[in-house]
Amino acid sequence: MYVYPIYRPPSEATSLILQLTLGCSYNQCLFCSSFKNKPFHTRPYETIVQHIEQAQHFYPNPQRIFLADANVLCLQTADLLKYLALIKETFPHVERISSYGGPLDILRKSEDELRQIRAAGLDMLYMGVESGSAEVLKFVHKGVTPEEMIAAGQKVKRMGFTFSCMIISGLGGQEMWESHALGSARVISAINPDYFGLLTLIIDDVSPLRPFLADGSLNLLGPEEVMRELHTMVRHCQLDRCVFRANHASNYYSFKGVLNRDKDALLAEISAAIEHGVYRPESGRLQ
Ligand SMILES: C[S@@+](CC[C@H](N)C(=O)[O-])C[C@H]1O[C@@H](n2cnc3c(N)ncnc32)[C@H](O)[C@@H]1O
Ligand code: SF4
Q: pLDDT-derived band of residue 281, with 50, 70 and 90 as boundaries?
């Protein structure tokens, strides 16, 4: 009943995954090869009912459920509400239901629709901010400006979702690193999500960014440059009780803390990482 590949945030490692949609209905971000070989489909109602029944047979009592694939918020609100009702009925003791929520889908839904979705049991959203720099967002075809990203993020928070935002270290390369660091700090601060997750740019062999590397218009940051970019980003963040995690397999170094509370400690850790130059050995970002 699962159609691979499947992606989920690191914090959903123990969650039951229910696949309501396949692939990504947008699929244009240049850094993201996740679904480039998996055409987008919504699944028929009967297939979803069967999928939920089968999942319940193997995992009768999950604590957490993650709704895949890339953007279940692209579903019609009436359909999503129907699926959430079925999931809550099938798994009455589930403590948290979450999914990715891209900025375009969030902006497309009215506040009333998001409020209904939240009330129906979708507790948490993960939004790929990726960068807060206007030039980087445009370069990677994320489809929104920094102001639209902020509007999407603030809307999610107003509607009462637990909210996590992702930024990709190194996404602007050497050309745009400073704008990436400062813009990302500004956008994340304006949203003030509950969680701020950091990944590091991975370029695999089907990445749409490959041609930019080949023609020299994008030059990747090395580990020390990634750390310096992160230092600038964290220094400029103004956050209130935001859990910061850089624990994805792509990261050169693992950091965690609560911002702004632990800002000085985090900055000191990043400086120490630069000084000692010891980075995760498995961190081959260019595959
Ligand atoms: C599977 S995607 C789903 C995101 C969701 N569709 C959105 O737009 O918010 C999850 C996240 O993986 C990260 N990601 C995707 N490709 C990446 C890459 N090549 N390097 C690093 N992180 C990447 C991005 O932060 C992205 O938001
Ligand atoms: S980052 Fe999200 S919206 Fe962009 S292509 Fe990947 S899955 Fe789709």
A: low
Indicate the top mutation candidate among 19, 21, 32 to test ligand 2's pocket, ranked by most ligand atoms within 8 A of CB.
32
- Exposure of 74 in the CB half-sphere (CA atoms within 13 A): 19
Site to probe by mutation for ligand 2, drawn from 6, 35, 167, 168 as the one with most ligand atoms within 8 Å of Cβ, is 35
Q: Cβ(150)–Cβ(191) under 8 Å?
A: yes
According to DSSP, the residues that pair with 256 across neighbouring strands are 245
- Ligand 2, atom 2: nearest CA belongs to which residue? 70
Please give the model's pTM, rounded to 2 decimal places. 0.97
Indicate which atom in ligand 1 lies nearest the CA of residue 142: 8
185 pocket-lining for ligand 2 (C-beta < 6 Å): no
pLDDT in tens, 182-229: 999 999 999 999 999 999 999 998 899 999 999 999 999 999 999 999
Where do the domains of the chain lie, and which CATH numbers do they carry? Answer: 1-122 (3.30.750.210), 126-287 (3.30.750.200)
**Hey, which residues does 258 pair with through a beta bridge?**
243
pLDDT digits (tens, 9 = 90+) for 161-179: 999 999 999 999 999 999 9
C-alpha of 119 from chain center: 22
